[in-house]
Amino acid sequence: MIPSPLRALFLCCAIGTIAGCAPGPYQGAMEAVEPGGHYAAMEDGDITLPAVDPQYLVEPNRMTQVAYNGPEEPGTIVVDPYAKFLYFVEGPGQATRYPIAVGREGRGFSGSATIQRKVEWPGWTPTANMLRTEPEVYGPFRGGIPGGVASPLGARALYLYRNGRDTRFRIHGTNDMASIGNSSTAGCIRLFNQDIIDLYNRAPMGTRVVVRTYDESVALEDPQYVNRGVELPPTIVDPDVIYAAVEEQKLRKAQ
Questions:
Q1: Is residue 20 part of a domain?
Q2: Where does the L,D-TPase catalytic domain start and stop, copy by copy (predicted)?
Q3: Which residues of 147-157 are buried (b: 16+ CB within 10 A; e: fewer)?
Q4: For position 96, what pLDDT does the model report?
């Protein structure tokens, strides 16, 4: 199980900017997935993911089938970092919508890229810039956190590239369930772990990803959802809690 103190709002990517193209408008929810099923506790290899607390799944903060009239081809991922939604286009007039959390770097990226790297239970290491600017937050983790229950990248990560180059933009899971539907001072695009596993399984290598600009969000999204959520303050995580979880995971694997 993932320990409850693991609320890691760590920076996972650097700022990237890509010129954009517009997705289609949001048309409204058709059918909601019940939280007791998709968001229940689940086994993922030798790791048990906890259920998502229902308090974090209040509509529209859960995976939902929606009508969608955008021009993107089936299989395209569309990210709206202002409405805090990610769409997986499934066919003409239909998409799956996932709620997301967005960091500052996630809001600094727009346009299109492709998924050229996919990782299950990715590890995380703070960048030199993070260590220099916020040593009190990231210094204790300069050695990195291996993939697993303690990693702030969660259960899966999708890495976006453009023209063969890493954009430093990531779509990944999170241990911080309360952040979904909100913004933070750091990070890229985060989903509930159950959602990122679902998306990971749907999106093969080479999947096209389109990220909306603010103007596109205002023009194309349901007005009630543009700029939804609040900006959360940084969370300083106790390194003893993190590395205790890492050691516990190692012991379980050894048994």
A1: no
A2: 75-212
A3: bbbbbbbbbbb
A4: 98
What pTM did the predictor assign? Answer: 0.83
Give the pLDDT of residue 249: 83
| Domain membership flag for residue 11 | no
Q: How many domains does the chain have?
A: 1
| pLDDT score recorded for residue 55 | 94
* Assigned domain for 56 exists: yes
CATH number of residue 202's parent domain: 2.40.440.10
172 is catalytic: yes
158 within 8 A of 106, measured Cβ to Cβ: no
Task: Look up residue 183 and give its amino acid.
Answer: S
pLDDT score recorded for residue 105: 64
Q: Are 157 and 169 in contact (CB under 8 A)?
A: no
Q: What average pLDDT values come out for the chain (255 residues) when binned by 10 residues? A: 36 29 33 67 90 94 91 94 96 94 77 97 88 88 91 95 93 93 83 98 98 90 92 83 87 80
Look at residues 125, 133, 210 and name the one whose alpha carbon lies nearest to residue 167. Answer: 210
Q: Residue for token digits 């709206």?
A: 80
Does 128 map to a domain? yes
Residues 83, 226 contacting (CB under 8 angstroms): yes
Question: CA angle, 246 as apex, 241 and 252 as ends, to 5°?
Answer: 125
pLDDT of residue 154: 95
